Every structure is written in structure tokens, then in C-alpha cells.
Amino acid sequence: MFNQYLVDAEEPLLFHTGLRGLFPLVSAAVERVMPVERLRWVTFGHLEADECGSMNSWLAAAPHAQIAHGALGCLVSVNDLADRPPRPLADGEVMDLGGKRMRRIETPHVPHGWDAGLFFEETTGTLLCGDLFTSMGSPPRSPTWRSSALPWRPRTPSARPA
After folding, report:
1. Using CA atoms, how far apart are residues 107 and 154, in angstroms rounded to an integer?
2. Which pLDDT does position 161 carry in this prediction?
3. Nearest to 137 by CA among 149, 129, 125
4. Which residues of the chain have pLDDT under 70?
5. Cβ-based burial of 79 (10 A; exposed 0-12, middle 13-18, buried ≥19)
6. What percentage of the chain has pLDDT greater than the value 70?
7. pLDDT score at 113
8. What's phi and psi for 134, nearest 5 deg?
9. Calpha distance 140→80 (Å, rounded)
10. Secondary structure element (H or E) that encloses residue 117, with its range
11. Rounded to an integer, what is the distance from CA 139 to the centroid of its chain?
């Protein structure tokens, strides 16, 4: 399961682009909310195909869009991979999107590489992160959902480890 998030503001932001092959599906979903050409910012939690695989497709479709990522990730990878220069973000830096405020929070190696980070949208209190809640198989249908890949179950005071 892959997730992309569109922050609709004066300067709209897409968090996670999805794989290159998913661009037609994700861009069609964005089109249901706003024209893709209006997109101003593209960002992601870390460099990995499911997070930023289609970033250059988004840059081609949205002529005013720019990649925004942590400064280290820009220096090491995004400067080379992106078709247009990215905007490097410092730890704690806030992007004012006009109606929404996105704060970059560096989280090196959590969940993956040294460029990892997340965004906190301050006006709604929404945390945007990647791969922290990964699960395999069907999505949960109830709080007691279990799968062989994720042997989680809620604990109660009387519950004992299995």
C-alpha cells in the first residue's frame, strides 16, 4: 500500500510522488481536486522509489513546481536526480504555503536513510511521514486485526504475551 498526500493551499504541495508507473493514477487523483499544473511543491520523507520515483514526471506536468527536501538529501542525491534544482530545507524550517504551514523535521535513519525526515502541518496538526506504519496484506478492519507479517494486537491490562 502506497500513500500520497495533497496539501491544498495557495501553493499546493504533494507529499510522496509514488512510483514512476503510478504517475497516471496519482495525477488523475490530484486532478479531481485541482489542476496538476497548479502544483507548487513536491516533497517526500526520504529517497526511495515509492516516495519520489515519479518526481520528474510531476516537474514536467507542473511547470512551476519545485522539489523541497532536506538539505543533506538535496546535496547527496536530489540535486543530481531532479530535472530542476530543489529547495533544500533546514531542520525545523517552515514552508508557508498560504493557508498551511509545513515544518520539516529531520529524522536521520528513521525509517531509512540519512536523508529521512517528515513534515508537520502546523495549522491542522497533521504529521506526514513515510514508511512508519507499513503493513503487509489487507488493511486492518478492526483494532484486533492480525496478519502473519505484523503480529500486532492491542494489549489490555489483563493481556499476557502469547
Report:
1. 27
2. 47
3. 149
4. 1, 132-162
5. middle
6. 80
7. 87
8. -65, 140
9. 39
10. strand 117-121
11. 19
Contact by Cβ (8 Å): 117, 106: yes
C-beta atoms surrounding 159 within 10 Å: 9
DSSP assignments along 16-81, one per residue? ----GGGHHHHHHHHHTTS-GGG--EEE-SSSSHHHHTTHHHHHHH-TT-EEEEEHHHIIIIIHHH
C-alpha cell belonging to residue 48: 526511495
The predicted pLDDT at position 86 comes to 98
Q: Name the β-bridge partners of 67.
A: 42
Distance CA 69, CA 59 (A): 14
Do 79 and 88 meet the contact criterion of CB atoms below 8 Å apart? no
pLDDT of residue 135: 62
pTM for the predicted model, two decimal places? 0.82
Count Cβ atoms below 10 Å from residue 61 Cβ, excluding itself: 17
